[in-house]
Amino acid sequence: MNMYIIMITHLKYNKSILMTIIYVFIYSSFPELWFPHINIENSKLLKISNISNLLKRRLWRGQKQRLTHIIKPDSLHAIPKSIPIFASPLKTKRFMAQKPGIPKGTRDFGPVEMLRRNYIFDTIKEVYQLYGYLPIETPSMENLSTLMGKYGEEGDKLLFKVLNSGDFMKKASDDVLKEKNSTKITNQISEKGLRYDLTVPFARYVVQHQNEISFPFKRFQIQPVWRADRPQKGRYREFYQCDADVIGSDSLLNEIELVQIIDDVFKRLNLEVVVKINNRKILAGIAEIIGHPEKIIDITVAIDKLDKIGLDKVNQEMLDKGIPQEAVNKLQPIIMLQGTTEEKLQTLREVLKESETGLKGVDEMAYVFKGLELFDINCEVELDLTLARGLNYYTGAIFEVKAKDVSIGSICGGGRYDDLTGIFGLKNLSGVGISFGADRIYDVLEEKSLFPDTTKTSTRALFINFGEVEQNYCLPVLAKLRAMNIKAQLYPDSAKMKKQMTFANNNNIPYVIMVGSNEMEQGVFTVKSMESGEQKTISFDELTKLIS
């Protein structure tokens, strides 16, 4: 027996809304086909002719059926009160597979992408280790008490909070739920969050493990971070940071060394960049001379958006934060200061002569730029007073790096933080660090076609599998190549030559090695270059030189 069901839609009449339920029995060449009952809620009175036409349109295609009987509305007393509505012939539905997808702002990485990403990570890691930095890792989740209040009001809004385990709503008070204040509700149902960066977890790590650490402590850390930001080009919700920090030293030599590291990394990546440097003490001094030192956070947060939203909107944001028009006017010639580094520093000394804090920042910048003259720095380094980096914990030098000729934002940044560990109970421990944005660096290298050919594949050569005899001959040779750190593989099946060659081509394997009966007798190898198509027969020693 197949069951047919009918959906009767709302029709607009001026008559009162009535509950109309109709029993319909259909007999055709298959008399067992029937409609048991229909429940139509909030429907209006329908004419029998309308129902008949609707039924005819809804009948299963290919079946000749005719309407023979309709039970009239006066028999409603015999119909149960709760009857289902149906829309089509009842048939066993196939399970609909869920369309796979990932959250916005996150990405999958295939083999080629991972080879290229590892190229970036390995380059950064090698440079860090060259300068004496040691690796550590911290958990993906931190207590919210560790994270909140360290990134400013806007940064706190971008934290991913993790719901408490179990019945997390049980601890939420009724008053808070009625108030519908998301911040208060979150505080009661969430105690953990995904890390926003690697610097704050590092500060927590230093305090927690201070008895195990020898200061000054130089560490690097390459791990993912998460920010609930709006995804766009070069901005992701999940991305990797590659941090290097030295903590337990006030010396400005550390700032100079970090600029060297930046220069060294991008020189190895063949990427032209501009390193912008400023000092939060200079910004604090500017806030003092315009008469609003208490607005330093609002001023730096606004100025930090200059490249993104423009000067007019930056000025409007400062006005909206309660900074008077007169003070905003005083800021204009300072933040738009032009000239050489020496000219900028000299102007700042005049402007900030009444601010002890500001002058200290100028002296620190002069020391760093003077120190950089001792080294052969390839990248462009400039003093940029619009650089503010609106993170609350920076107290001295701040860095930002941008790629030339690419509109993607900063690809590296950092600064000095004198008080970060103090909030975790360890006072007077200064630190300074930088962080490379691996994901943005990837996008820049890809856009400028700067990835080397070696990042296309990890395999240098593929042995063609002609059969069991040839396979057994190639396996010991393959082992010798791997012992020499040459990446090679044997196709696992004795498939058609075309299939194996296609495999090598699709996986960007540069060389294919063919060993048949003749090669085995002579102890040689026939090698084909997949790029040029050139094919030659060579000895084992020649083979290792060619593919290594």
Summarize the SSE layout with pairings.
Elements: E1 24-28, H1 48-58, E2 65-70, H2 111-130, E3 134-135, E4 141-143, H3 144-147, H4 152-157, E5 161-163, H5 174-179, H6 182-189, E6 190-194, H7 199-208, E7 217-226, E8 238-247, H8 253-268, E9 273-279, H9 280-289, H10 296-303, H11 306-309, H12 311-320, H13 325-335, H14 341-351, H15 356-372, E10 380-383, E11 397-403, E12 410-417, E13 431-437, H16 438-447, E14 461-463, H17 468-483, E15 488-490, H18 497-506, E16 511-514, H19 517-522, E17 525-529, E18 535-538, H20 540-547
Parallel strand pairs: 3-7, 9-10, 14-15, 14-16
Antiparallel strand pairs: 1-2, 4-6, 5-6, 7-8, 8-13, 9-11, 11-12, 12-13, 16-17, 17-18
Helix pairs in contact: 2-8, 2-16, 8-15, 9-15, 10-12, 14-15
Task: Output the number of helix runs.
Answer: 20
Q: Report Rg.
A: 35 Å
Number of domains: 3
Strand order of the largest sheet: 3-7-8-13-12-11-9-10
Percentage beta strand: 15-25%
| Cα separation of the termini | 72 Å
Largest sheet: 8 strands, mixed
- Gross CATH architecture of the largest domain: 2-Layer Sandwich
The level 1 CATH classification of the largest domain is Alpha Beta
The CATH topology assignment of the largest domain is BirA Bifunctional Protein, domain 2
Mean pLDDT: 82
CATH superfamily annotation of the largest domain = Bira Bifunctional Protein, Domain 2
Secondary-structure-derived class: alpha+beta
Identify the overall geometry: globular
The total strand number stands at: 18
Q: Can you tell me the residue ranges where pLDDT is under 50 for at least 5 consecutive residues?
A: 1-49, 58-92
Give the fraction of residues assigned to helices: 25-40%
